[in-house]
Amino acid sequence: xxxxxxxxxxxxxLILAASICLLVTTIxxxxxxxxxxxxxxxxxxxxxxxxxxxxxxxxxxxxxDYCSGRSxxxxxxxEMGNVEGTGFSEAGADTANGLTxxxxxxxxxxxxxxxxxxxxxxxxxxxxxxxxxxxxxxxxITLVVLITDLVGFAIVRNDVNGDGQNxxxxxxxxxxxLVAAFxxxxxxxxxxxxxxxxARRQKKRERQAAAEPKNDYGTQVGGRRRWYNFRRSxx
Length: 235
Fold this sequence. Notes:
By secondary structure, the chain is of the alpha+beta class. It is 60% helix and 8% strand. The protein has helices spanning 6-26, 76-84, 90-99, 105-120, 125-161, 173-211, 223-232; strands at 38-41, 47-50, 55-58, 66-67, 168-171.
């Protein structure tokens, strides 16, 4: 079986790094209060961190922090209305709320990326090819959930920043680790494919070299040597 080189292992490390980034996004609020996909610093001193499976209110007016239950899909527009009375259009609120259901793809993308990492540990051509295919699937899932996160939370961010209450909404570390995972998966997939085809070309060259005839000294006999012997034989 053809073996790949150090470049292959660099691609494998990129896929592992992408898996870690996706894990960070997955464990955002309410699992880890301070990790957010969108963070809102309100005018009254509290902060709201929106994550994959819910949200947390940090330094709430009731005292301390509290978080929502963990669920697939929640209502960020309604929560901002409760915290500071931010107004949303019905279409905007429904869109933002509905797109939170798609965030279940965060852990799915993380799991698929980790499987791609494990498969890619087989450094042969087959391992590189299958790993690249699985990485491509993880990349597509990450692309889909990245787009839905940006669209859904852009609605919340724009309405909070435009309601005139001096609150500030901005994307948190959970979104940037998702962006990083998207880039890392693409690079890792490209490197795996590159090393796969490079190894196949190397294996083909080795087969061709082994098939060429050799003289008694182990030196390959090529066309130029035969032409020299032909001239010495009388021409």
